[in-house]
Design the sequence.
């Protein structure tokens, strides 16, 4: 199959060696690349129940057949492992230019196993692969690390790096590239830290060949102009994700004060217009005409961001309406190597524990100083907040309002104002996540009734298949394109005929494979649930006043979801389902 | 007629380079493109590094066999006449001449309708007679 | 009667940036306003009036503050 390089680079950190092997093309046919293919490798290569922070865990960097080609928005890289935050399977998606660079260097994937005795960084320049000492970089932020590596290895290299949070194996540690792009969730940075791997530096000067370059180039250009750069997607260029702040506030789904409210009085100090007022420039990922990145400078602090997740979870959810403070929080998280979603949630949870007198963390909603200090302390593991929301609630209580599923903290959408979103959080393969399915676009932001379970199970199932396929090719989440178009592009790239139906089946296969991994780790139906706050506590303001998601309704929706999926009442795929999907 | 780049519109997507390599070499390979545009973070912040043909004509001047010519406001290149001496690539102040096995890759404006310009999603790259040309 | 209109993101191209005052002869439905602005009907626009989401059937009242959002994807 064209589009693939056909090569995997395997790094053994125990022995500081590397080897090159063929990509498993049989698996590639069934799982494409990106999320799906990385998960297949993880599923096959990890023994059950490995400690995610032990040398036995593996970290897989996976590109896809579209990576590095002229297909718009194909600049993402999957990074997968078993998650130290959730113990589930974990795949993260990171933008910038690193994915293309790996492919131009001559690899579809990089598999990292074992643990180096001392801190190292991996330096790849086409076929030249070296592990070098990172002793001088240990303890440094991701920004200084990237600047140092560019000065040492050449300004054109692309870098993935962890900060102190990853080194300290904090379960909300991320991996950073180009200073402000993240593989954010589930503690992927802690996995890298546990391997004593500070950074990965890549330079690639080769090309990517596809089945029908003439036709692909012509179609990709046409599709970019007509489809990518249309009113349906250009919000990403004009505003970027901050546009969602006002949308969420108007529909009552903007998480506020640890999900106690769905609207925020100071929303207009942190919405898109406010961000655009301090925006200095725009930046996109490789091959992306949407360029969603907002480069802002508040005078105090610069960042590429803040994204909606940071503005909501690190803003309204912490009671903070000071954009300058959020930008500073964002920059700190990026530099220290922390996921802003999990970090913001943990701080908000600690604020509520303090407010309720359960445990005094000396943190108050809206307290900018405390919030910025807590962020630094989390990265350095100098506070119990480094346990994350689930860990804290197990130690001090407050489980009813510990906003997490399977150990992963909620992203910025209130499920009481979009009931399908609740199901999406409960059933996502890596815990509460908004990128496995985003039904809120049809619910609160669309024309479906948000406060009913009617049709939601089917909606979430379909979206999970759609996203699994899309994240496996790999394309960016922000481009709302049809699976038909994906199939057309994939056919021109690989030379293998793909249809919309094939992609739906592949999506379903990936969702089921992830489920099988999690079942092997001991997860079942009882883990597919939401914190009590969602079931029992009504919201008070705006479009979601007096709304909750009653537990019986949620359970009904979950049962229907299992049924549609062909899973038993324990949430386990039946033998027939697995046969049907050839897993 | 030459290329110009309006930095304020560029998002650093490299579609121009991808398109150039596809058009000229039949492969997707930004390093094989006859222009290089990168948005990169430095200690000073977000900077745009640009290398595009400015039509300074240094290459035309140094070419010993007249393989590179300047005609009708564009560069032309003849593979037959090129000896692969790489003098042009060494002379090019922009570093946009691609060195290949025994030939070179010159920005010939795609004969008047440059693919990089056609692809640029936000009209950052333009082609024409703009006074001064180059980077703005 | 007068209403106030703000278009978000790429919708600005249908009526400009910021808050615009619009005079209407008589009360019209929100969906009619969209077509008068020449926003293609195929585009799934979210209409918010005075901070609350409404459908295209909403009858605009004098003094209404209308905000129009484009469809978004992928959070
Ligand atoms: S290719 Fe280089 S040397 Fe030749 S005209 Fe263009 S900028 Fe000058
Ligand atoms: S295609 Fe246009 S926006 Fe993209 S890097 Fe090239 S000049 Fe910049």
Sequence:
């Amino acid at each position: 199959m064209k589009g693939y390089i056909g090569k995997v680079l395997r790094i053994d950190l125990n022995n500081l060696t590397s080897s090159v092997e063929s990509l498993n093309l049989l698996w590639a046919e069934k799982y494409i690349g990106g999320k799906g293919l990385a998960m297949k490798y993880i599923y096959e290569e990890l023994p059950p129940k490995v400690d995610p922070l032990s040398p036995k865990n593996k970290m897989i960097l996976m590109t896809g057949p579209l990576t590095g080609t002229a297909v718009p928005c194909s600049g993402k890289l999957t990074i997968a492992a078993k998650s130290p935050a959730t113990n589930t399977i974990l795949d993260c998606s990171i933008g910038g230019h690193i994915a293309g660079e790996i492919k131009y260097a001559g690899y579809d994937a990089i598999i990292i196993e074992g643990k180096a005795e001392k801190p190292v960084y991996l330096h790849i320049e086409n076929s030249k692969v070296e592990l070098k000492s990172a002793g001088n970089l240990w303890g440094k932020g991701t920004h200084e690390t990237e600047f140092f590596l560019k000065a040492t290895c050449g300004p054109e290299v692309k870098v993935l790096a962890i900060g102190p949070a990853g080194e300290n194996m904090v379960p909300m540690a991320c991996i950073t590239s180009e200073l402000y792009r993240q593989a954010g969730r589930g503690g992927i940075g802690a996995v890298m830290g546990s391997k004593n791997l500070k950074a990965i530096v890549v330079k690639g000067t080769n090309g990517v060949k596809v089945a029908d370059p003439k036709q692909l180039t012509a179609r990709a250009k046409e599709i970019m102009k007509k489809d990518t750069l249309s009113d349906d997607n250009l919000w990403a260029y004009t505003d970027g994700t901050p546009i969602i702040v006002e949308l969420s506030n108007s529909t009552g789904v903007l998480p506020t004060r640890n999900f106690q409210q769905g609207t925020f009085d100071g929303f207009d100090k942190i919405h898109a217009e406010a961000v655009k007022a301090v925006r200095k420039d725009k930046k996109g990922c490789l091959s992306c005409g949407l360029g969603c990145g907002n480069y802002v400078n508040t005078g105090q602090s610069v960042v590429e961001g803040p994204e909606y997740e940071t503005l909501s979870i690190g803003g309204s959810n912490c009671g903070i309406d000071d954009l300058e403070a959020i930008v500073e929080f964002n920059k700190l998280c990026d530099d220290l190597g922390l996921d802003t979603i999990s970090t913001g949630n943990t701080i908000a949870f600690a604020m509520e524990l303090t407010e309720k007198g359960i445990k005094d963390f000396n943190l108050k909603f809206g307290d900018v100083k405390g919030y910025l200090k807590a962020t630094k302390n989390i990265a350095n593991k100098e506070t119990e907040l480094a346990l994350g929301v689930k860990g804290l609630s197990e130690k001090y209580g407050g489980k009813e309002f510990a906003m997490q599923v399977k150990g992963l903290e909620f992203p910025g959408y209130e499920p009481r104002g979009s009931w399908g979103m609740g199901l999406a959080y409960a059933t996502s393969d890596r815990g509460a996540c908004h990128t496995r399915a985003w039904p809120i676009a049809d619910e609160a932001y669309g024309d479906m009734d948000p406060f009913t379970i009617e049709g939601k199970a089917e909606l979430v199932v379909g979206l999970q298949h759609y996203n699994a396929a899309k994240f496996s090719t790999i394309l960016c989440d922000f481009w709302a394109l049809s699976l038909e178009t994906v199939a057309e592009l994939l056919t021109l790239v690989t030379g293998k005929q793909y249809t919309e139906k094939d992609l739906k089946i592949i999506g379903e296969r990936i969702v089921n494979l992830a489920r099988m991994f999690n079942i092997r780790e001991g997860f079942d139906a009882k883990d597919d649930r939401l914190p009590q706050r969602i079931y029992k506590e009504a919201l008070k303001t705006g479009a979601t006043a007096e709304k909750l998601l009653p537990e019986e309704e949620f359970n009904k929706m979950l049962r229907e979801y299992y049924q549609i999926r062909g899973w038993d009442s324990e949430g386990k795929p039946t033998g027939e389902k697995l046969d049907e999907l050839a897993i | 007629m030459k290329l110009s780049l309006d930095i304020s519109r560029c998002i650093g997507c490299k579609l121009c380079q991808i398109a150039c390599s596809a058009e000229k070499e039949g492969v997707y390979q930004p390093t094989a493109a006859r222009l290089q545009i990168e948005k990169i973070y430095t200690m000073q912040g977000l900077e745009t590094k640009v290398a595009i043909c400015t039509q300074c004509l240094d290459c035309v001047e140094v070419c010993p066999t007249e393989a590179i010519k300047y005609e009708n406001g564009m560069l032309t290149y003849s593979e037959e006449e090129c000896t692969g001496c790489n003098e042009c690539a060494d002379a090019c102040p922009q570093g946009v001449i691609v060195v290949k096995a025994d030939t070179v890759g010159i920005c010939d404006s795609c004969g008047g309708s440059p693919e990089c310009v056609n692809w640029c999603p936000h009209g950052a790259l333009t082609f024409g007679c703009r006074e001064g040309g180059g980077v703005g | 009667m007068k209403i106030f209109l703000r278009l978000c993101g790429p919708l600005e191209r249908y009526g400009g940036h910021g808050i615009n005052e619009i005079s209407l002869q008589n009360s019209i439905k929100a969906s009619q306003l969209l077509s008068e602005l020449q926003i293609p009907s195929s585009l799934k626009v979210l209409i918010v009036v005075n901070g609350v989401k409404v459908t295209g059937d909403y009858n605009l009242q004098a003094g209404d503050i209308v905000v129009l959002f484009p469809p978004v994807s992928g959070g």
In short: The interface with chain C takes residues 231-235, 237-239, 241, 243-244, 246-247, 249-251, 272, 308-309, 411-413, 434-435, 438, 440-441, 444-447, 476-480, 542-543 of chain A (CB under 8 Å). The first strand of chain A starts at residue 7 and ends at 12. Residues B 5, 10-16, 37, 119-122, 124-125 surround iron/sulfur cluster (ligand 2) (CB under 6 Å).
